[in-house]
């Protein structure tokens, strides 16, 4: 957990690309929303760490999205956490939260109208809406519903100054979950 804590210490106060909150505020709000919804601990931790790929060192990044974060941050973050002993469920929820956006834009055109300017911009880098074949394959993921939940919390977790539990609270939870 020390490396995850250090990542947040180094980059957690950076702006959350195009949004009015920091990386850490976004992570804490997302986890809090998951917790308030009654999600299990693995899902809460996935919500907390879903954007960890944006905090990884630049040498691990495959490129950047014109000031909107790291290309493939979801895959980088999932692989990073797998290497540190997190469950496949946590990794899958993180790895597919971008696919959830692509899916929802394909499946529900009104969803696109609700996306922030930053989410619309990153969608261009992330492949745009899914194809019908991609959507069918995505729906077969055993964590499909939880992935969509993480996406919803991701979209909501952008409120400046919102009180949340502190980072240590979710780091402790993450440590417990990584040992499951």
From TrEMBL:
InterPro entries for the chain: HD/PDEase_dom, HD_domain, HDIG_dom, OP_Dioxygenase, Phosphonate_degrad-assoc
SMART domains assigned: HDc
Domain HD span(s) in chain numbering: 23-141
CDD domains: HDc (cd00077)
Domain of life according to the entry: Bacteria
Pfam families assigned to the protein according to its UniProt record, in alphabetical order: HD
Descriptive protein name: Phosphonate degradation HD-domain oxygenase
Source organism (scientific name): Spirosoma soli
């Amino acid at each position: 957990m020390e490396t995850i804590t250090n990542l947040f210490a180094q980059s957690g106060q950076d702006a959350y690309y195009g949004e009015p909150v920091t990386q850490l505020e976004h992570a804490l709000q997302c986890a809090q929303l998951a917790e308030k919804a009654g999600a299990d601990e693995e899902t809460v931790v996935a919500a907390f760490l879903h954007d960890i790929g944006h905090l990884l060192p630049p040498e691990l990044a495959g490129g950047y999205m014109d000031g909107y974060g790291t290309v493939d941050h979801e895959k980088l973050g999932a692989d990073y956490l797998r290497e540190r002993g997190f469950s496949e469920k946590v990794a899958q929820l993180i790895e597919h939260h971008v696919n959830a956006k692509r899916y929802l834009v394909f499946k529900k055109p009104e969803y696109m109208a609700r996306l922030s300017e930053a989410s619309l911009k990153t969608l261009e880098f992330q492949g745009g809406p899914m194809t019908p074949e991609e959507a069918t394959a995505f729906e077969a993921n055993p964590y499909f519903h939880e992935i969509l939940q993480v996406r919803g919390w991701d979209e909501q977790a952008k409120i400046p100054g919102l009180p949340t539990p502190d980072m240590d609270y979710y780091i402790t939870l993450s440590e417990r979950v990584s040992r499951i």
